[in-house]
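Regression test attached.
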Amino acid sequence: MPTLELKNVSYAYEKGKAVLQNVSGSLETGKMYAILGPSGSGKTTLLSLLGGLDVPTQGSVLFDGEDIAAKGLEHHRRNHISLIFQSYNLIDYMTPVENVRLTAKLDAAPILERLGLEQDEITRNVLKLSGGQQQRVAIARALASDAPVILADEPTGNLDADTAEEITAILKESAHAFGKCVVVVTHSGEVAKQADVVLEIKRGHLKEREM
Amino acid sequence: MSIFKRAFLYVTRKRGKTILLFAILLIMATLVLTGLSIWKASEATQLDLRQSLGGKFDVFVDWNNSPYVVKETVKEEYDEETGKASNGFIMYSTVQFTPENIAAIKGVPGVKYCSARQDNLLPFDGLSLFPGTISTDAKYQGYTKALGVCNTEDDELFTTGTLTLAEGRHITTDDTHVAIISQDLAERNELKIGDYLTAHSYSVEDQGFTGLEIRIQIIGLFTPHAVEQFGETVTTYDKIQNRVFVDLQSSKEFDGEEINYGFSALHVTIDDPQDMARVVAEVKALPGIDWKAFTVEMDNETYENAAAPLATLNELVVTLLVVIIVVSAIILALILTLWTKTRIHEIGVFLSVGIRKSAIIGQYLIEVLLIAVLAFGLSYFTSNAIAGQIGNHLLEQSMQTEPEDDNDVVAAAAVDVGADNLLQKPLPTENGIQVSVGLDNLAQLYLIGLAIVIVAVSTSSITVMRLKPREILSKMS
């Protein structure tokens, strides 16, 4: 059974100006998905709908066959979804380990160490870490929440090529080793190459791209 | 991570904001606590004032309107000096207060004392009096005032402390043919408790002594708190040391029991001047008193004059408190609103990880409360340091705003009655009000502060909490 399913989803910011039109598709656990598309094509909107941050103007988003609106979007976000952002979105008055513990259902420290953060780094002020380290903390927070779906919006957008490669590898490992459904919105062809499935949004429609 | 842990982390890590908020809350709490303590002190002083002053009212025969007033012509009196005879008359009421009426009035809740006197001017056999400072008619030399009472303990001269029973006991309702005289008079005449005084019955109608001898036993000696000052004018019979208190029966016998079987006037002292109307109404509703014969004159002026600055202070403090509370809530709400807008990124993160909006507002509330608990606690000391000064400054302002009416304002716990200068007790307000911050005030502050914080946090969170998570995340990016 697919984890996340889009059923005839449409979304319009203004009447008559649809960003997504009648989009359908399914996303499974254990796979990493990349969503490509030009700026303004609706990639982030799609991610918001999958993450329960917004509701479609038409159609529905299902999790394990159940409409995510049925139990409430908050419930969906709290129990099914982890979000990773381009700007990391860490809480600035918390240390890395405290950021991870924000929603942690698993022990934070081992996950942070596995993602390459040293013991002294995980108790440091989060803003004193490098961009790559901050994104690792964000991924650790996503993994520690033990949510089955990780939604990442341009997770490598602010990182150099080497760090971006490392982060992409971690995301891929999260899908394969931890059995997560990882959905990455990206402009990067390098990131897309690492994905198991590449989806492309064109003129409001979602299509799987042959790689 | 729990809501409390998040709040604690914010408060301890964002020290600049914490210190600023602490300072704001400390100032707010100090002002509120100062206001509350001044209010309490003002209320306590008013209560103290009411209890010190009491209230008074007099009930007396309505000489103009009573149907029971009788006017009788009495035997002509021949004046030896002028050689002329004068037509005299007497006025009296056939309805008078009895000791039973006095007992019933004393039983009314709120009545402290109820006293009445029959005044008699008469000589006692062989009694040497202290001379007055002004001369009287030759006829009245050797005369003094004998005051017929039911109970000397309730007499205003004793209740105000003007006279003190130095030896023996008070006259009670059950006594007959007893007297209390001054210690000075007793010493002057080598009298002691148990000795007798002798007087003679006098007929008002016949204007002469009847020949009936009345012997009264001395059962007590009093000392006056003060005697008249040098240069003060007083007749022999008005001198306080010459005063003789006797029981009602003796007093009636002095008058020949023809007219005065009771009292024409009562003096009632009540515990609380605020209860004046109720007490008077209850007295008027008592059975056994014919109110066609009497009228009531209330005297609350002393209390009202003395309490007016405190009432003004009370109004001022309540107004200030309301202003402080409202302004505090507004300032706090504005500051928190500004800060909430700077925390939009954090709100977005919390919402994206599934933390409820209510939990986010709850965290903000706990953050402010954590700081407020400390600030409110410290305000106990800051308020204690300034409350007294501010309270008395406000009281002075209140006194200055009262209309000047010095002739009528008697800053005393008793008023002058007839020739008797009653003892003047200092008023509770004369040395200012005693303001101290109590734990009850602190508890009130915590309640008021909690309300202010809840209102401010709720108001400040409205704008952000109305936004959808997506909108917040858009603002973040």
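Expected vs. actual: identical. The longest strand of chain B covers residues 208-224.
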